[in-house]
Structures are given as structure tokens and as C-alpha cells.
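Attaching the record inline, Q. Sequence:
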Amino acid sequence: MAIIIGDIHGNLEKVQAFLAHRPDQPHIALGDYCDSFFEPLERQLACLQLLMASDTVLLWGNHDLHYLNTPLFRFPGYEKEHAALLQPLLEGAIDRFRPVCLADGWLCSHAGLHSSQGHTEQELEQLISADWQQYLADHSQGFRFKSIFTFDFAGIGRLTPGDIRQVVAHDHYQNPGFVNPNFVRVGCFDPETAWIFDTQLGAVCDLLQTAADREE
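Structure, as predicted:
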């Protein structure tokens, strides 16, 4: 069982609601802690520090990876003046972050896989994790699965492999939730929402809306 959240982008209220929700359960963040149209660098750093101090499993997002010393790519939103603080923080805790993880049979990554290549979720987690460790040891080898940080399901249509179960973020979906029984998306750029997927309940909900409903 796990509580899984999508893009953060410096939204401190989202992080606080996420960490406070069912704290007895494992928590997984799908990346994109950095870069924001709305939040200053100070709040982006505060989000990262809160998450890194917790037991949350932290995955890489494309907006985090491009602040590393040797980035796989550089995306729109990169702020050169922010790199002086973000780069040492991320590099100093580089082993705290993963490219993928498995939770209750769900393969979790930032942007998802468009093909299972005949592998199970567990096999894919092992393959991708091993390839990432090799990349960290020798950048010249490249990383074969970098589309898991950048794949755009919203832009190209619903080309989701039906033979594996996935939870993804990355795209700014208007309606997070189940695309099909094997594909859940929780990415959302709206600063007023905090969408999560609860693997035990098999449900997607907005933590900030849930909190607002309780206060009424």
C-alpha cells in the first residue's frame, strides 16, 4: 500500500498535506519538485527539504534532473540563477532519488513507459534501476529509459501499454485519475489541488479539496 503524489513544483501546501495524509502508510513522490510559474525558489527548497527529511520515496522528474552536474537534458523552466542552490542539494543527496519504484504491483515513474517490451512491472523496475546505477557510475554509457522522465501521453494520445500497471505524473491533466484499469495519472499543475493515488483504496482524490470539505 502507498500514497502517491504527482508534480510538486514548489507547492508547500501540497507537500504538507501529502506528508500529513495517512502518515502510517508509505509515501511516494513522482518528481518535479523544482521550477514553478507560481512559487519562488525559497518554497521550492523548502519542499525539497521537507520531503528529503521524511521517509518518502523520491523519484526524479525532468525538472529536477536538469539541475544535476551532468544533466540528461535541459527543459523549459530551467533557471540558471537557481542552479547554484538546487544543484548541490540534489547532487549531495543523489542516492535519495530513484528513477522508478514498485508499489502494490504499480510501476511508479514520473512520465511512464509507452511499452513494457514483454516485461513485468517487477522486471522493469529492476532493469531501469540497474541502468540508472550504471549511468550514475559512467555518464558516457547513457541512460536507455530517459523517456520515463519526458514521455507525453497527453500530447500523443493514450498509447498506454495494457499489460502493466502504471502511476504517472508529468503532464498537466485537467482530470487526474484512471485512464484505464492499468493506468493512473496524478500529474496536475493547478496550485489549488494536490491529487494523490491511494493504492490500498484504489482511488484518486484531491487532498486540498478533501481538507477544505472537512473544514466546512
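The mean pLDDT is 89. The CA atoms of residues 102 and 108 lie 6 Å apart.

More tomorrow.
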